[in-house]
Write a structure and sequence with these properties.
The chain has about 230 residues and is an all-alpha fold. Helix content is about 55%, strand content about 0%.
Length: about 230
């Protein structure tokens, strides 16, 4: 900052005269500010902006300090779990809810099914598979039989293995026929369906290869029924 000396008093007077003679100045900022219309000024809200937790209606309490020892941490976890009766009641509720969801899933309710089983097309495919007796359904029992023959003599194992290979060839041929039949029936019932023929055929083959009592969802039609 530059200070004026005593001998510069005349310069100070000259500067004051120039300012009074030209109040606007070269930039004209004061005149422009006075000439602006009052409507262009932004009106305020008239109230402070509320905090987020106040706007959401939440009240946050103080955060508990971290436990200093493992004993204190165990005591805090035990206190948060509640009493033994409360834990047993909560566990019983969870088991009941899980059993209810499983029962609804086995009954075929679309809301509780896996994504691969949802939709009227997949339900129709399951009905078509469940309504017929398939040779592919012997896949799991034959696989169990093959495991048991590993403890027999080599001669018996050779005969069983050969029989298993022949059965596998027949089951593969039946799986191909099941896929073609399922796709044809689905196209007739749901002409606007865009599912892949391969995915529908594989879904039907996997369903047919399972033991009837172990299928999920449970079969809605009996063997031999018309669909």
């Amino acid at each position: 900052m530059k200070f004026l000396r005593r001998g510069d008093a005349s310069k100070t007077d000259d500067l004051a005269d120039e300012t009074s003679a030209d109040p606007v100045g070269e930039s004209g900022g004061a005149a422009d500010a006075s000439d602006r219309p009052a409507a262009t000024a932004t009106a305020g809200k008239g109230r402070p902006t509320p905090k987020r937790r106040d706007a959401e209606g939440k009240r946050r309490g103080p955060i508990a300090p971290a436990p200093m020892t493992s004993k204190e941490a165990r005591a805090r976890r035990k206190a948060n779990r509640g009493t033994r009766a409360d834990r047993k009641a909560a566990s019983a509720d969870r088991r009941a809810a899980a059993a209810d969801r499983r029962a609804r899933m086995l009954a075929g309710e679309d809301k509780y099914l896996l994504p691969r089983d949802r939709g009227p097309v997949r339900a129709y495919v399951r009905d078509l598979v469940d309504a017929r007796r398939n040779l592919v359904g012997l896949f799991m029992p034959l696989a169990l039989l093959l495991i048991l023959t590993m403890f027999l003599t080599p001669a018996v194992q050779a005969y069983v293995t050969l029989a298993m290979l022949v059965m596998m060839v027949f089951m593969a041929g039946e799986g191909f026929l099941i896929g073609r039949t399922i796709n044809r029936r689905v196209r007739e019932r749901f002409p606007d369906d865009t599912s892949s023929p391969w995915s529908l055929g594989w879904y039907a083959f996997v369903r047919a290869s399972q033991i009837r009592r172990m299928r999920a969802p449970k079969p809605r039609v009996g063997a031999g029924d018309s669909v």
